[in-house]
Design brief:
The chain is an alpha/beta fold. The chain has 3 domains: 105 residues, no CATH class; 250 residues, Vaccinia Virus protein VP39 (Rossmann fold); 105 residues, Orthogonal Bundle (Arc Repressor Mutant, subunit A). 39% of the residues lie in helices and 25% in strands. It contains 20 helices and 19 strands. The strands form 5 sheets. The chain has an 8-stranded mixed sheet, with helices on both faces. A 3-stranded antiparallel sheet has the order 1-3-2. 41% of the residues are buried.
């Protein structure tokens, strides 16, 4: 039981009945978005519900009643709820632990929201049940055992998951089960673990609501519930938030790992290799500190290199905050408003903790680790601060990048030179000239998808990329360019090949198959 007083009961039959009612009511993202409008929908993302409620007006049809009750946390009459959910009824919601009845009204004890998504199999939609949040509660601090719904970080990680087949997947710290649901679309069996029994109950409810068989849950911390087991894939949105351990500071189960600083992420990285099959991939989100004059990415590199199992690593830092910015963000996340004495107290505690440990910045980003089948060949640690065109669906790009890395790593320079390449369809070229100059001072290759990267090229590299039509080999193009530029062919080829390898892994260039 948590602060809202409800005990969850993930009864399979009743959950299926509820799913049938929600489908019959057309309780879906698009109809609701159409009901209250795009601007009101954007406001919901900023925890503003008034514009959407104005859009619903005094409607009492099933979608409107369910939206007020299950999305916005507003009690509805028992008769309206019974009409909206004719099979489940208000009594069924109470039995599941999702609501309570007070007089003639149904009061929500949890949220249940439609969440649309898109992956390599096409568009889809889940119903996600979780604890009442700031939108539904109208503000205020959350319970420490709060189970988060579909937050921005969890949806980002869901979009990062590799859309490639897997037999067994571990969802470490499942929360309400979003990663398990996403992984099940490409995997046969999912084991979802969490330290919170309530979170596991929500996961079971959501798996049944969304028809996702093959998801089992286990209770325990980190890798304890799967000791001695190995998986093809591990995915985790762990409680990585850095929270002061001293003093009366709220510790939220969904985000605070209970360890000092970024030690939770370090522990996860240390244990991942032993639970992956050879070639298995782990993907997680995390925070890491720059402390004692050591850069955060360098600290992550040290954790990876200290793993008892050799790991390929691709670490992407998406954001870097100073201690004040970081503390303010997570204090707001807990529902404490700026300008209040409690906010000032918490901010002081956070800053005292950072000062005591000489923390100058906190990075946030994506971690992709692979159990190496021999010596590791991938060690990529980078900052990607620019907007990403496809952040919600980067999984395909990551899968292609891993395949391209492996393919080029298996080729020596002569073998790579003998391959024909083609330019990816989303790549464009921009040339920048100083006024009056005939030749460009900067040639920039730009990627429309993936990470939206830019790659500065000299005239030789730009010429090579432009000639990659899938027919001529790299060596043939380099030879022609050497004649045009009047330079030594071997030297030009040697200077171009490292950049070609980078462009292949980055997705600017692709291997051309013989049939193409």
């Amino acid at each position: 039981m948590n602060d809202n007083g409800s005990v969850l009961n993930p009864d399979p039959s009743l959950c299926q009945t509820l799913a049938d009612d929600l489908a019959a009511a057309n309780f879906r993202s698009e109809p609701l978005r159409a009901a209250w409008g795009v601007e009101a929908d954007d406001a919901i993302g900023r925890t503003l519900r008034t514009p959407a409620l104005r859009g619903l007006g005094d409607r009492t049809d099933p979608p409107a009643v369910l939206a007020r009750l299950l999305i916005f946390g507003i009690a509805q009459s028992t008769s309206d709820v019974d009409r909206a959910l004719p099979r489940t009824g208000s009594a069924g919601l109470v039995e599941l632990g999702l609501a309570a009845i007070e007089g003639r009204a149904v009061r929500p004890a949890a949220t249940l929201r439609p969440q649309s998504f898109h992956d390599d199999r096409g568009p889809g939609e889940w119903w996600i049940a979780a604890d009442l949040d700031e939108l539904a509660l109208g503000g205020g601090a959350l319970a420490e055992d709060h189970v988060l719904g579909a937050g921005g970080a969890s949806l980002t990680l869901a979009g990062l998951q590799l859309p490639t087949p897997a037999k067994r997947v571990l969802d470490l710290g499942t929360g309400c089960g979003i990663q398990a649901l996403r992984a099940r679309r490409f995997a046969d069996e999912i084991v979802a673990t969490d330290i919170s029994e309530r979170a596991l109950a929500f996961t079971r409810i959501n798996a049944i609501l969304d028809g996702s068989e093959g998801i089992s849950t286990r209770h325990g911390s980190l890798f304890e519930p799967v000791a001695g087991e190995r998986f093809d894939r591990i995915v985790s949105n762990p409680p990585f938030v850095i929270t002061p351990r001293a003093g009366d500071i709220p510790a939220y189960e969904y985000r605070d790992g209970g360890l000092v600083g970024d030690a939770l992420v370090e522990q996860v990285i240390a244990g991942i290799g032993e639970h992956l099959v050879p070639g298995g991939v782990a993907q997680l989100l995390g925070n890491w500190e720059a402390t004692g004059g050591v850069d955060g990415l360098d600290r992550v590199r040290a954790w990876v290199e200290a793993s008892p199992v050799p790991l390929d690593a691709w670490i992407v830092e998406r954001e870097r905050l100073n201690p004040i910015e970081y503390a303010e963000m997570w204090i707001r996340d807990g529902g404490t408003a700026p300008g209040t004495p409690e906010h000032d107290r918490l901010l002081s505690a956070w800053l005292d903790d950072f000062d005591a440990r000489d923390v100058s910045a906190v990075g946030f980003g994506y971690v992709l680790l692979r159990r190496a089948e021999g010596d590791p060949t991938l060690a990529r640690y980078e900052r990607v601060p620019q907007p990403i065109p496809s952040e919600g669906s980067l999984g395909s790009h990551l899968a292609d990048a891993l395949a391209a890395h492996d393919a080029q790593a298996a080729l020596d320079d002569d073998a790579l030179g003998a391959r024909a390449l083609r330019v990816a369809g989303d790549v464009t070229e921009a040339r920048h000239h100083t006024p009056g100059s005939e030749n460009p001072t900067v040639i920039e290759l730009r990627q429309g998808g993936g990470f939206g990267r830019s790659f500065h090229a000299d005239p030789a590299l730009a010429g090579l990329v432009g000639a990659c039509d899938g027919e001529l080999t790299v060596a043939q193009i380099a030879g022609a360019l050497a004649q045009i530029l009047e330079v030594d062919e071997q030297s030009l080829r040697a200077s171009l090949l490292p950049a070609v390898r980078s462009l292949l892994v980055g997705g600017f260039l692709r291997f051309s198959e013989p049939s193409e």
